[in-house]
Specification:
The protein is mainly alpha-helical. It has helices spanning 11-27, 30-38, 55-63, 68-80, 86-93, 98-105. The chain has one domain. The chain is globular and about 40 Å long. The two termini are 17 Å apart. Bound molecules: zinc ion.
Length: 121
């Protein structure tokens, strides 16, 4: 577990595992799958909404080969890169996503829709 007693993540350890975690996430198509949940290609399934946590990410990880012991490390890495919730992962961590392009197309509507969720994770 990559946490100290005060709950703060050990940044040295996070830095050391970041390249490997990112490689695993890319290989498992984590970002593409998350992108597809929040911004589906077609109307094949309803668009999910980020509610300010890792709910959708957990669903993607669950469907991949990650077991829940890995999740804490993965989310520590994502948080360190600015991904404090599902939509921020796509916006701040993924190199490219439909969400990002759609965001810039429709700036002003707000990326979270009407309700802005709190920045807690
Ligand atoms: Zn969000």
């Amino acid at each position: 577990m990559v946490t100290r007693m005060d709950g703060a993540a050990d940044s040295d350890l996070i830095n050391s595992i970041t390249p490997d975690v990112m490689t695993c996430l890319r290989r498992s198509l984590f970002f593409e799958r998350l992108d597809d949940l929040l911004f589906p290609k077609e109307d094949s399934h309803p668009r999910e909404v980020c509610i300010g946590n890792y709910e959708l990410s957990k669903r993607v990880l669950e469907a991949s080969d990650f077991d829940s012991d890995d999740w804490q490390d993965i989310f520590n890495v994502l948080r360190a890169k600015g991904g404090c919730c599902d939509c921020e992962i796509l916006y701040n961590v993924a190199e490219s996503s439909r969400m990002k392009s759609e965001y810039w197309k429709s700036r002003g509507d707000g990326i979270h829709g009407k309700t802005k969720h709190p920045r807690t994770a």
